[in-house]
């Protein structure tokens, strides 16, 4: 599987969605390396984050893909890859 590095805008959108899903204050600082578990997210929260990302970006994250997401950067990179794959497939 090729590695895709997410655009800064994608990382920012992921941060916004994570804040919303976890009901974090708008000023809470999230970085690409922020782990969802460090924010108090459990596996159900992670599923809800993935669902929010799917809705925002119009993609579908396979279950095995979502299990590999533990940080903001990993989520953003996966989104970019899925968007590229989707646009390449059409």
UniProtKB/TrEMBL annotation:
| SUPFAM superfamilies linked to this entry | ACP-like
Q: What is the first-listed, main subcellular location in coarse terms?
A: plastid
Query: Which PROSITE patterns is this protein grouped with?
Result: CARRIER, PHOSPHOPANTETHEINE
Q: GO terms for CC?
A: chloroplast
Q: Where in the cell is it found?
A: Plastid, Chloroplast
Annotated Gene3D superfamilies = ACP-like (1.10.1200.10)
Q: Where is the Carrier domain?
A: 8-83
Keyword set for this entry? Chloroplast, Fatty acid biosynthesis, Fatty acid metabolism, Lipid biosynthesis, Lipid metabolism, Phosphopantetheine, Phosphoprotein, Plastid, Transit peptide
GO molecular-function term, one example from the UniProt record = phosphopantetheine binding
Q: Does the keyword Chloroplast apply?
A: yes
Q: Does the keyword Phosphoprotein apply?
A: yes
Q: Which HAMAP family match?
A: Acyl_carrier
Q: What does this protein do?
A: Carrier of the growing fatty acid chain in fatty acid biosynthesis.
Q: What family does the database annotate?
A: Belongs to the acyl carrier protein (ACP) family.
Q: What is this protein called?
A: Acyl carrier protein
Question: Which organism's genome codes for this protein?
Answer: Glycine max
